[in-house]
């Protein structure tokens, strides 16, 4: 999708690229594909579920702790057509995934 294409382009430009994915298996497959296609070993995977504000906080905290700087943030996660569901934090799942999680992530990473 769009996120993978953006990550591929950033990696081709020799950028350290962090893929933030819900699934370790799918994310790691994407990391390996991007590394192989670009020759850039600085492509890494971090787990993130934007539907979970706790996951967003943990991800942002790790990035701020581990990375000396952050130049670009691409908020590309999103879902559509899911049945109505409430997250464990009491939020509607689609709204949390598409809006609240990315908004919180952006604001936490602004420093």
Automatic annotation (TrEMBL):
Coiled-coil residue windows: none
The keyword Ribonucleoprotein belongs to this UniProt entry's keyword annotation: no
Alphabetized UniProt keyword annotations: Oxidoreductase
Pfam families referenced in this protein's UniProt entry, alphabetically: adh_short (PF00106)
Gene3D superfamilies linked: NAD(P)-binding Rossmann-like Domain
UniProt-listed InterPro entries: NAD(P)-bd_dom_sf, SDR_fam
MF (Gene Ontology): oxidoreductase activity
SUPFAM superfamilies: NAD(P)-binding Rossmann-fold domains
Family of this protein: Belongs to the short-chain dehydrogenases/reductases (SDR) family.
Protein name: RDH11 dehydrogenase
Native species: Platysteira castanea
Top-level taxonomy: Eukaryota, Metazoa, Chordata, Craniata, Vertebrata
Encoding gene (name): Rdh11
